[in-house]
Design a protein that fits this description.
- This protein has 13 helices and 17 strands.
- The protein is α+β, with helices and mostly antiparallel strands.
- The protein has two domains: about 325 residues, Bira Bifunctional Protein, Domain 2 (BirA Bifunctional Protein, domain 2, 2-Layer Sandwich); about 100 residues, 2-Layer Sandwich (Alpha-Beta Plaits), CATH 3.30.70.380.
- An eight-stranded mixed beta sheet has the order 3-7-8-13-12-11-10-9.
- α3 crosses α8, α3 crosses α10 and α8 runs parallel beside α10.
- Bound molecules: adenosine-5'-[phenylalaninyl-phosphate] (FA5) and magnesium ion.
- The site of magnesium ion has 3 residues, from β12.
């Protein structure tokens, strides 16, 4: 097989992303596949479902209240992505196993929140929207992909404008939002001293007003999406009355840059699907951005997750397809949203499961997840990355099916089931075997495991 260390790690050649060149160092860990996706920017590709989804959400947050930014570069500093947002130095999100680094202080943004500080500082309007490609080393299944698109939104009010009447002013804006009749489950208290605390500098009625404005705005966004979904169905299906009522719920969450914080989940394909995270912005971020007199909210949505609901797209890999059977289904929709219809899957090709079992190497671990061959700390994302590199979009999902510790040696054994299935054709068993053999080889070579 190919030697990964020589290819990405030890020669530290500069790399070019979107016409800019960057130095690399021992932190560099971006696979060629992921690099090749940096120019794609699906949110800017007309008639692509990610583009259409962006368009619809933008319509719920109109100018001039919201200013839109859709071409911010994906390469950011560790300061922008983490420090400016209050991520502690040892936050797991910073690890090489979770984030794609160019060098020790430069990375591919893991979320659109990386631009919050700069845009709060710019302060051109009371609100902004950012749509962008984001990058994460993550698990493999039908709703996770290492490159996806997020939309960030934020809205602030200034104490300088409203003084003592700040809460009243925000409530007035809440009252002006359109109504919806969606069924929303929200059993959460406005604040919770331990789990979801009010900020020191916020009065309870101010933060409650901001939270109400935030939740209602996002419910309207989901409502708008589902109104489109319904309209698209009415034209294609007679079984309208069979339509499931839309179910959404608010769940308490934690982000270093908001408190209180929530996630919004939508019931989809028999399961609760998390579509966004949000909260009341930490005052520290606004202070650092030079606008300490402001108070407001922020959210981050996964655009593919919304697009999957909107178009009933069953698998996140499809977004990256250049197959005309996929792309042709959305032609003309950007210019005329009434043309929107559910995606019609092309026939599902057979799956081909392969298991791989192994003992984890050694019992010592090198702290940084190391470049040393052999013994290193186990992280599942490293396996996922190998599978993605070898199998690309021919892998549907990877699940841990067994894990145990040997009573005498203390060694841990893991078994993963890899589901090889192409969206576009039937994979032959020999092809799947060949991919699987490569995966096995690289697991030994790079992660130092012992195959069973
Ligand atoms: C964030 O990224 C926060 N920056 C969101 C935020 C912004 C919170 C502003 C508060 C204020 P999270 O990691 O949960 O949070 O991701 C947000 C959304 O991105 C998720 O709800 C989901 O819809 C989507 N998402 C996350 N990981 C993936 C993935 N691997 N593939 C596709 N979509 C994903
Ligand atoms: Mg989340």
């Amino acid at each position: 097989g190919r030697c990964w260390r020589a290819a990405y790690s030890s020669d530290h050649k500069p790399i070019t992303i979107n016409q800019k060149t960057y130095r690399t160092d021992e932190w560099f860990n971006i696979s060629p596949t992921v690099l090749s996706l940096t120019p794609r920017k699906l949110h800017l590709q007309k008639d692509h479902p990610v583009y259409i989804t962006r368009q619809i959400i933008e319509s719920v947050f109109p100018a001039p209240t919201f200013k839109t930014y859709n071409t911010l570069d994906p390469v950011v500093t560790t300061h922008e992505n983490f420090d400016s947002l209050g991520f502690p130095p040892d936050h797991p999100g910073r690890a090489k196993t979770d984030t794609y680094y160019i060098n020790s202080e430069t990375l591919l943004r893991t979320h659109t929140s990386a631009h919050e500080a700069a845009l709060f500082r710019a302060g051109e309007s009371p609100g902004y929207l950012i749509s962008a490609d984001v990058y994460r080393r993550d698990e493999i299944d039908k709703s996770h992909y290492p490159v996806f698109h997020q939309m960030e939104g934020a809205r602030v009010w200034s104490r300088a404008d409203h003084g003592e009447n700040l809460a009243t002013a925000i409530w007035a804006d809440v009252e002006h939002l359109p109504k919806h009749d969606m069924n929303v489950e929200d059993p959460n208290p406005a604040f919770h001293a331990e789990r979801n605390p009010l900020q020191e500098r916020h009065k309870e009625e101010e933060a409650a007003a901001v939270a109400a404005h935030l939740k209602k705005s996002l419910e309207l966004m989901v409502y708008e999406i589902f109104t489109r979904v319904r309209a698209s169905h009415a034209k294609t299906a007679e079984k309208k009355e069979k339509e499931e009522p839309l179910k959404v719920r608010w769940v308490e969450a934690y982000f270093p840059f908001t408190t209180p914080s929530w996630e919004l989940e939508v019931f989809y394909q028999g399961d609760w699907l998390e579509v966004l995270g949000c909260g009341v912005s930490q005052q520290k971020i606004l202070d650092d951005a030079g606008v300490p007199e402001k108070i407001g909210w922020a959210f981050g949505i996964g655009l593919e997750r919304i697009a999957m609901l909107l178009f009933q797209i069953p698998d996140i890999r499809l977004f990256w397809s250049s197959d005309e059977r996929f792309l042709s289904q959305f032609k003309g929709v950007s210019d005329d949203l009434t043309k929107l219809k559910p995606f019609v899957p092309f026939s599902k090709h057979p799956a081909c499961y392969k298991d791989v079992s192994f003992w984890l190497g050694g019992t010592t671990s090198s702290a940084a997840g190391g470049n040393d061959r052999g013994v290193q700390q186990w992280h599942e994302n490293d396996l996922m990355e190998i599978v993605r590199e070898v199998g690309g979009d021919n892998v549907e999902d990877v699940v841990l099916t067994d894990s145990f510790q040997h009573p005498k040696t203390g060694k841990r054994s893991l078994c993963y089931r890899i589901n090889y299935r192409s969206l576009e054709r039937t994979l032959r068993n020999e092809e799947a075997n060949e991919l699987h053999e490569k995966v096995r080889g690289l697991l030994v070579e790079r992660l130092g495991v012992e195959l069973r």
